[in-house]
Amino acid sequence: MAAKRFLHGADYNPEQWIKYKREVWKQDMERAKQAGVNELSVGIFSWSFLEPEDGVYDFSWLDEVMDMLHENGIRAILATPSGARPPWMAKKYPSVLRMDHERKPNVFGGRHNACYSSPDFRRKVTEINTQLAKRYANHPALYMWHVSNEYNYECHCPRCQEAFRDWLRARYHTIDNLNDSWWNTFWSHRFSDFSQVESPTTPSMLGEWESPNHNLAWRRFCSDHLAAFFELECEPLHKYTPNIPVTANLMHTFPGLDYFDLGRRMDVVSWDNYPRWKGDEEDVAISAATSFKHDLMRGTGGQKPFLMMESCPGAVNWGDHNTLPPPGTVLYQGMQALAHGSDSVQYFQFRAGRGGSEQFHGAVLSPDGSDQTRAFREVSETGRMLEKLDEIAGSKTDNKVALVYDWHVRWALDYAWLGHRFDQKYEETVQAHHTALTAAGYGVDVIDQLSDLTPYKAVVAPMLFLLRDGFAQRLTNFAKAGGVVMLTYLSGYVDEEDLRYMDTPPLEALTGVRVDECDAFTHGHENSFLWRDVQWPIKEVAQLSTPITAQVLADYQQQFYKGMPTLTRNAVEKGYCYTLQARTHIDCLTAVYQDLLQSHGIEPLVGGLPAGVIATARYGADGQRYLFLLNSQREPVSAALPAGLTNLLTGETTQGDTVLNAFSVTVFRG
Ligand code: GAL
Q1: Which residue's CA lies nearest to atom 3 of ligand 1?
Q2: Using one digit for the tens of pLDDT, what is the confidence trace for 322-352?
Q3: Torsion over CA of 484, 490, 496 and 498, rounded to 10 degrees?
Q4: SS3 per residue for 56-124
Q5: Conformational region of residue 145, where left means phi above 0, alpha means psi within -120 to 50, and beta covers everything else
Q6: Rounded distance between C-alpha atoms, residue 442 and residue 452, angstroms
Q7: How many other C-beta atoms can be found within 10 angstroms of the C-beta atom of residue 655?
Q8: Using DSSP, how many helices (H) and how many strands (E) does the chain show?
């Protein structure tokens, strides 16, 4: 078995340099060695070079690249090229062009814009993927497949409309079931046949755009349709290279795709990480957001090690203001990925092109190939660091606290006509709970409503607005068996079909409170509640509820609902369900989690961490624990750590108070 190693690599586009390959490719290999680069992702946008004319393939350059990578000890992550089409394809097969919500077809250009229902596109993708899989099946450099690039999908062409209708037929069987599920008697929208259903026209409002149920169905269809396209892409890969793992690079909370569903279909999840570091105190929040995204991405892959497929070793160029990342960013960013379970640190891209819209995007190498740049030095430093940490590669997390983030909830809230109509802040809220849990010292797994709950002692599910079939019961069983559940306002309002309940809502027995109303406000609507003798501010959302069996732990201090509960606890056989009825400050959430979880014997990885410091842990197959301490502050801090942890890089052992360097990640064994 090959020794465990972290991947250290980048997207690599050698075909852009084919005219200068003698010098440039040679220099690329030298620089890769200098920087400790052991992986390069190739072929991502190479279709027009691989198939310059319909059915005419040219793999000679890729053969050369693959051989060169192998000779230099570099693993190849080989892409399928569907992320961007060659121009001839759009001319010859116009069905490959997407149609927007106004039913206007695109013209050739850009990328990530193919119609996945197009029979021509499907055929051409299958053909080229088959060619690639057959040709490189036994190539020693082939390490993994990288399917397409940052998949997204929304197309309103006639074929996609038909595919949507087929999807609806399969889900609802009869048009009456669909009408009932979408509450179509409202505004006289009852269909008499599936053929009358059209995709929603948000945001143009040309046709249907207001129905939450219709919109949710369209989101679900788009996600399923794309997942099916992913399966189509994988077929030849699985057939000809059954032992080569498959990944697709994701974009954290991208709304267009249920990444848990897609993640369950791949061998390894990978994602593209582009935090915009500032070099000041704002980095604490940026780091916290990035930690949430890493945990979410690991979750979509079932908590296995994942890959950080892209990150920028300099400034990106697509923002309005592309601030330079301060020195040390590459290392922090890479180590943060490792801390959350990544088995790689990869960049976009290895060598920047001379032209194209990404000519000024940060890269390991500028077009001149110099090794004297800050980016190159920082990448090389990270490479050296990774080599010292290789024993951690492949190790897994084992967290006891799960946090629910579910795309179906997100979609339902995106289209929900209630509260803060245009932004219910689902993502922001789940992330705030993540930040609070990690600030309280816990390692967190992010899961969806289909995930297994048995590994956990506590499940936190903020704004669980839509209940997918069976989840309320599974959550209740989890509590009955001794688990701790934490819920909030806006939970359990609608069922799987986005319909309100006629009977007792399924979460009522679990929470022990009856939800009466929910208030949404902005400024000038003060409220607060008391916890640990501190008045904590309530912002934006306050749910009004009446306790049935729950005990009230805190109540509203102002407004006409003064005295109604803000925090309740309900005993459910061996476990408990807490419900936080209002939105509050992260520091308050941190205090609440510290108190509540510890009161149930759920211990943090490290308690009493200073602000801006979090801990994560990975465990080797032999049970060896690796503890990561992330200090996202721009100054060193002293943390009271347990004695006897060995710093993996310095060999020093902790005695108690330990200094964590400014903006650093420290790894301990023990
Ligand atoms: C990613 C994309 C890359 C590159 C990069 C630039 O989203 O996958 O191909 O465009 O952004 O930041």
Answers
A1: 348
A2: 999 999 999 999 999 999 999 999 999 999 9
A3: 180
A4: ECCCHHHHHHHHHHHHCCCEEEEECCCCCCCHHHHHHCHHHECECCCCCECCCCCCCCECCCCHHHHHH
A5: beta
A6: 19
A7: 10
A8: 17, 26
- What is the rounded average pLDDT of the residues 438-452? 98
More confident residue, 2 or 556: 556
Cα three-residue angle 23-29-32, rounded to 5 degrees: 135
CA dihedral 248, 251, 255, 256 (to 10 degrees): -30
DSSP 211-268: -HHHHHHHHHHHHHHHHHHHHHHHHHHHHH-TTS-EE-EE-TT-TTS-HHHHHHTSSS
Give the residue, by CA position, lying nearest to ligand 1 atom 5: 348
Answer left, alpha or beta for residue 98, where phi above 0 means left and psi between -120 and 50 means alpha: beta
Average pLDDT, the chain: 97
What pLDDT shows up at residue 316? 97
Rg (alpha carbons) of the chain, rounded to whole number: 26
Active-site entry in 51, 208, 233, 310: 310
Mutate to test the pocket of ligand 1, among 11, 150, 271, 322 (most ligand atoms within 8 A of CB): 150
Residues 196, 165 contacting (CB under 8 angstroms): no
Per residue in 508-532, pLDDT (tens digit) is 999 999 999 999 988 777 899 999 8
202 vs 565, higher pLDDT: 565
Q: Count of residues for the chain? A: 670
pLDDT in tens, 626-659: 999 999 999 999 999 999 999 999 999 999 899 9
Query: For residue 200, what are its two tokens?
Result: 């929603």
- CB 286 near ligand 1, within 6 Å: no
Six-digit token string for 146: 């990288």
pLDDT above 50 (res 1): no
Question: Do 509 and 487 touch, CB atoms closer than 8 A?
Answer: no
Query: 497 catalytic, yes or no?
Result: no
446 CA distance to ligand 1 centroid (A)? 25
Residue to probe by mutation, ligand 1, list 348, 350, 351, most atoms within 8 Å of CB: 348
- Give the closest residue (by CA) to ligand 1 atom 1: 272
Q: What is the mean pLDDT of residues 68-97?
A: 98
Distance of CA 198 to the CA centre of its chain: 30
What would the pLDDT profile of 228-287 be if each residue is shown by its tens digit? 999 999 999 999 999 999 999 999 999 999 999 999 999 999 999 999 999 999 999 999
- Is the Cβ–Cβ distance between 545 and 493 less than 8 Å? no
Average of pLDDT values for 502-511? Answer: 97
Structure tokens at 521: 């406000």
Catalytic residue among 15, 64, 127, 150: 150
Q: Tell me the three state secondary structure of residue 566.
A: strand
Residues whose CB falls within 8 Å of the CB of residue 64, separated by 6 or more in sequence, listed in order: 21
